[in-house]
Amino acid sequence: MNQHYLTALLAILLALSGVPNLSAQQDSSADVLYKQGLSYKNGTDGKNIDFAKAYDYFSQAAQLNYPQGVYSLAYMHFKGLSCQQDYVKAAGLFKQGALAGRDNSMYFLGLIYRNGYGIPANEDSAKYWLQKAADMGYKQAIEELKMQVGENSNVAAKALAAQIQNAALPANAILDHYVRIEHKLPGQSIITGDYNGYLLQYDWSGQNIVDSKSLNLHLADNNGILTGTWTEEGTDSVAVQASLEADSLRFSNTQYRRKDHYSPDTAILYNFNDIVLNLVQKNDSTVNSSDIDHLIPD
């Protein structure tokens, strides 16, 4: 009896003496790591955007089972930011965050189930997690539930891709997933003029076509500088400026707004960050095809 009493008394004295709570201390450290990662991801708090450093900090926070760190690491894998794009790994991490009660992880897990990204599509699981996030007030989940289908259900875009015969693609190319464009240089005299076609948008894995829009690109030679307009769907137009390089046109310092599945009502600001359009001469036609790796929302 005396031994038990002394043990209990010792525990009370230790608690009163200020011995730190290890769990709280761990959470504090994880929160610092997460916030450091966030500042590198977004380029805030005096830091430049550095996805590699952001990924490292998020990984450390996730290793401490910090829910927001787990979510952020999943997000990096979902989009392939400074890591291999991997929907399967992202799904596992989002599920971990969702089970920990994070509304943002619930939302992304719902998207993955709805679109079949990396795992078999499951509408029931998608609605379950999207609804749980919506019930917590997560706006993006509320908006997604209003959509009749997910972004990976664009039948028109898939049909268009199946019909396109693009001279810039290899003869055996499969058009239902992203293919890197060949680089070939035509004569400079045929650069200017009007190019009409389509802008195909892929998901983050480059395996799924999620949207298509008609595109007109008008280019003119303005005292040695290529200027013109980029027009989507005949209405959304932006002035562009480009330089001719060895095998491509390079656009820079251009911003414009466009709508997509996740922002159907309000156009999002996009940056043309060194977009390269590759020009290919075939018979009497010039094909202008692109690898748009850096069309990134602000």
Largest sheet: 7 strands, antiparallel
Shape: globular
Q: What is the rounded Rg?
A: 25 Å
Strand proportion, as a percent range, falls in 25-35%
Q: Could you say how many structural domains there are in total? A: 2
The secondary-structure class comes to: alpha+beta
Biggest β-sheet: strands ordered side by side in the sheet: 1-2-3-4-5-8-9
The total beta strand count reads: 10
Average pLDDT rating: 75
Order of helices and strands: HHHHHHHHHEEEEEEEEEE
Stretches where pLDDT is under 50 for at least 5 consecutive residues are 1-22, 165-172, 174-188, 281-287, 293-298
Protein name: Sel1 repeat family protein
InterPro entries: Mitotic_Regulator, Sel1-like, TPR-like_helical_dom_sf
Pfam families: Sel1
Organism: Chryseobacterium piperi
